[in-house]
Amino acid sequence: MVKETIRVVLADDHPFMRAGIRATLSGEDDIVVVGEAADGDQAQRLCLQLKPDVLLLDMQMSGPPATATVAFLRERSPQVKVLVLTAYDDDVYVQGMLAIGVAGYVLKDDVPEALVRALRAVMRGDTWFSGRVLRNLALKRESSAFQGEGTRLSGRELEIVQLLAAGMADKEIGDALYVSERTVRYHLRAIYDKLGVKSRVAAAVRATQLGLVQRTGEGRPPALSEAPVSGGDS
């Protein structure tokens, strides 16, 4: 099946950073950078002119602040998804971006593969946050009310929530665990019910709060067994 091409406008005020990101994305046959902006005004103009799928937006640039650019696009070009790229992982910044409806939040020191996964995730309509960002959000919340919830998840559900928190899509999780995508979705519904959440991001945050997510490195999924799990498509 031919992948849908993801058209990206890249907005960052550092030419070296833009060049590095462009080089990273150039190796992906389903992602193309259609324009580059060095400030917020230019980013807004390019999005109106080029109508990209995703705006990859540096949070700190000259011109209008990132919040203003997001608000502008929501009104003038709502089909453009905004993926924030920043060095700031403080929950104050993250929650501010969440409040205005960004599609994701990627840290500049994440591994390159994380950016590629993030772009594909937001293109699918999912929300993406770097692993460290999710952990920081979790640390700011009281987890005592959630004690014991993690024990309600089955072994397979624990495996799935690990891969979910690593940013894998349903199909990727299924491939990793040798089960169908439909089976993954079935387990995800059970996970949402047991954790009392309604979205992938909320499930990842709650699982992190409960200590269910292994910290195996920023942006990297946990190690997977190379042998299929016995018992078939469970």
Question: Your description of this structure?
Answer:
The chain is α/β, with parallel strands linked by helices. The protein has 2 domains: 6-129, Rossmann fold (3-Layer(aba) Sandwich), CATH 3.40.50.2300; 144-234, Arc Repressor Mutant, subunit A (Orthogonal Bundle), CATH 1.10.10.10. It contains 10 helices and 6 strands, in the order βαβαβαβαβαβααααα. The chain has helices spanning 15-26, 40-50, 66-76, 91-99, 112-123, 131-139, 155-165, 170-177, 181-195, 200-209; strands at 6-11, 31-37, 54-58, 81-86, 104-107, 128-129. Strands 2-1-3-4-5-6 form a 6-stranded parallel sheet, sandwiched between helices. β1 (6-11), α1 (15-26) and β2 (31-37) form a beta-alpha-beta unit. α6 (131-139) packs across α10 (200-209), α7 (155-165) crosses α10 and α8 packs across α9. The longest helix has 15 residues, at 181-195. The model is unreliable at 142-147 and 215-234 (pLDDT under 50).
N-C termini distance: 26 Å
Mean pLDDT: 81
Q: Classify the beta-strand content into a percent band.
A: 5-15%
Please report the total strand number as a whole number: 6
Instruction: Write down the domain tally.
Output: 2
Please outline what is shown here.
With 234 residues, this protein is of the alpha/beta class. Helices cover 46% and strands 13% of the residues.
